[in-house]
Amino acid sequence: MPMELFDRQKNAVGQGERTVLVNVEVTSNLQKSNGMNEFKQLALSSGLNIVQTIKVKRNSIKAQFFIGKGKVEELASIVSINEADLVIFSLQLSPTQERNLEKTLKCQVMDRTGLILDIFALRAKSFEGKLQVELAQLRHLSTRLIRGWTHLERQKGGIGLRGPGETQLETDKRLISKRIKYLSRRLEKVHKQHDLGRKSRRKKDLPMISLTGYTNAGKSTLFNQLTNSHVYADDKLFATLDSTIRRVSLPGAGEAVVVDTVGFIQDLPHELVAAFKSTLEETRQAKVLLHVVDASDSDNGDKIEQVEDIIEQIGAQEIPSIIVMNKIDEMSNFHPRVDKDYSGNTYRVWLSAHTGEGIDLLYQALSERLSGMMTYVGIKLDVQSAYIRSEIHKVGFIQKEKMNEFGQWLLEINVTRHYLKRLLGKQGVSLLWEQKSQQSQMA
């Protein structure tokens, strides 16, 4: 494929380009506005210089320009006055509409899908992430080649190329198709490696906890709190693209695996859903979903529904979940608490991942949800293994303990079966009894 075509797609939005945002609301169409505030945040996340924003309300979509000719003329004047390099529409444009608008406005035009793809290209750091983004970009570009190459639809010629030949457009379509197949094969190999990792974790009986939620809800900050890590977290949309997995010891629940994944957004482009199959697979394999919500966001009710729709799309709706109402530190006079359902189970925890307030309540809720993977046992620690008791205090949940006349510790603990297996493999640790209920058997 010609390098200029790849360069144009990979760097579709340059840093600091003078940009006009067009927020369109169409009352009679299934597409709906995503809100000017979120639209602006997306543009700012891509490093654009927003020179003006305009709102357009329409009853129907116009085939030629998406909006009416009068609004297009007004927009052309705005672009000229502001010397804008780029115009972005909040709703999805057809390839023909993009081409018509570019000819009239005399600048680059893209829609919200193209903007999100550009943000993903900026944020992807890992090898897999870059492959996923390029695949999504090329799938998107393959439907829009008519926009970029109508002026090059001419037959090739010259030595070795005489004969029927093919148009430049056909050549580019063929080369893009070839590149898509190549990237798909590379990603398939990465997916197989991930599958091996997931099988290994399942064999070890390690429960997986997946953080999910709307972008910029504070998932990475919560991940850092739970795992004592320092993954990148910022007040930006899609600050996290690459999945991060950490093995942790949770108070009252023992060992587990916590996964930080890409945030969702309304109308997430289907190209990205397909390309990020492996990342979303981590969510499907979880034992518990922590649905992180920005409690201070007045629109969080709609965003909760949008995330739940995507969770259903990827087939993870049956996984037990806990809603984590994050950022209570940004709310006045609000204290950590838990909300329980009619059965007495915690389904929502209010906390601040930034300050750490309420994290202990989340630990308790996770312990409840992971109880199916846990067991209640009595163990004995020999005198020379008494040091292990302090470790169990950190990673397990000691219900009762006492020392017998021989200086041995007798403990009743509630831990995951995986951790118990590891514990019993240590010298000087022996199992006294195991039961499902927590009725004491200590002598």
Provide the CATH architecture of the largest domain. Answer: 3-Layer(aba) Sandwich
Query: Count of DSSP E strands?
Result: 15
Shape: elongated
Query: What would CATH call the class of the largest domain?
Result: Alpha Beta
Q: What is the rounded distance between the termini?
A: 77 Å
Task: Tell me the β content.
Answer: 15-25%
Largest sheet: 7 strands, mixed
Judged by helices, strands and strand pairing, the structural class is: alpha/beta
Strand order of the largest sheet: 6-7-5-8-9-11-10
Number of helices: 15
- CATH topology annotation of the largest domain: Rossmann fold
How many domains, in number, for the residues?
Answer: 4
Portion of residues within helices: 25-40%
H and E string: HEHEHEHEHHHHEHEEHHEHEEEHEHEEHE
Mean pLDDT: 78
CATH superfamily of the largest domain: P-loop containing nucleotide triphosphate hydrolases
Low-confidence stretches: 1-12, 147-165
The Rg value, from CA coordinates, equals 27 Å
